[in-house]
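Hi P.,

Sorry for the delay on this. The queue was packed all week, but I finally got your sequence through. Input first:
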Amino acid sequence: MKKIKLTLASQILIGLILGIIVGAIFYGNPAVETYLQPIGTIFINMIKMIVVPIIISTLILGVAGTGDLKKLGKLGGKTLIYFEVVTTIAIIVGILSANIFKPGVGLDMSTLSKGDIDQYVQTTEEVQSESHGILDVVVNIVPSNVIQSMAEGDMLPIIFFSVLFGLGIAAIGEKGKPVLAFFEGVADAMFWVTNCIMKFAPFGVFALIGVSVSKFGLESLIPLGKLMILVYLTMLFFIVVVLGGIAKLVGTNIFHIIKVLKDELLLAYSTSSSETVLPKVMQKMEKFGCPKDIVSFVVPTGYSFNLDGSTLYQALAALFIAQMYGIDLSMTEQITLVLVLMLTSKGIAGVPGVSFVVLLATLGTVGIPLEGLAFIAGIDRLLDMARTVVNVVGNALATVVMSKWEGRFDTEKKESYRSSVNELAENQFG
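Then the structure:
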């Protein structure tokens, strides 16, 4: 008799299903949040605990191995151009989807329940008071206190410091070898810790999804079903057609990337957090044939500048709210919306609840009532799950694109890794 081996993906899926069942059965019962939320919080905190050490150690190793400031400068420029182009395409896809399918037209607002968006309003006011414009983002890349940036998990200053430190190690030659060996040890140890934490992932998923369903229930999905289905189908279109087309242009297959990252995508979907999978995505994309320095630079930077799923959703949600209120936006107003979203999404990237915060900061510029966001707050968690998957796939593909663009992608390493992944899948039952 064959013994069934449950993969991490299978365990996470079981946790997801059980969480939905428990949340639905105990809908409205505060005891669910009381007992399950700490489990979910512990899991998220464990992930946050390892992200900064992994980014610093791997980026320093990669940069010190390259040791070429000019090459890194070119990589940075190309990466930011690529991110800007793809996120702009995502915004346009969201706008087109909302215009073609009109999910908010004819919706009876009296059938909708309002969610609490006070925390997002407060965050938006704080962000706007700090004037997070593009120039502020550029200035804030340079940390005044790198320890503080590490404590706050502020990615761009951490990347800036790590790149300079890596170049410094490369510049001092033999003297830098002990320091390099230290960071190599840190990276290896942190990836071991990551594998340990991933064993707790099914429990974290069960708790997080159970709390969400118990708070909002499944009934809140019905009136907004059209919006939810459209968001999911548009996200699927973006992955298969847009990201799939980009992948084909650089000579790879988007489904190969998805297959390699299936565990991470399921985890990201279940937790609505890209951060939970950042270490494993970096590790797997390096195995997929991308150089360490490119992976270490592109993936963390993408978490601030390449949120394809989030920008697509923001465009679609903005027009949905306008349609719900019967506001017919002109082409000029829609172009204004695209431009404002392009600037705002970059200016406050990394802020908690970033999609809602960006929408709150943007809607007023084209005359859309901010109160409309309260109507979709109840299903935001489920929409967030979809946009998180798109964000992860988009950043994983970006590492391949940059590696190919730099002429440093290792095709043999990729094929070898793909073969091992396929072999592992075939031996799942044994």
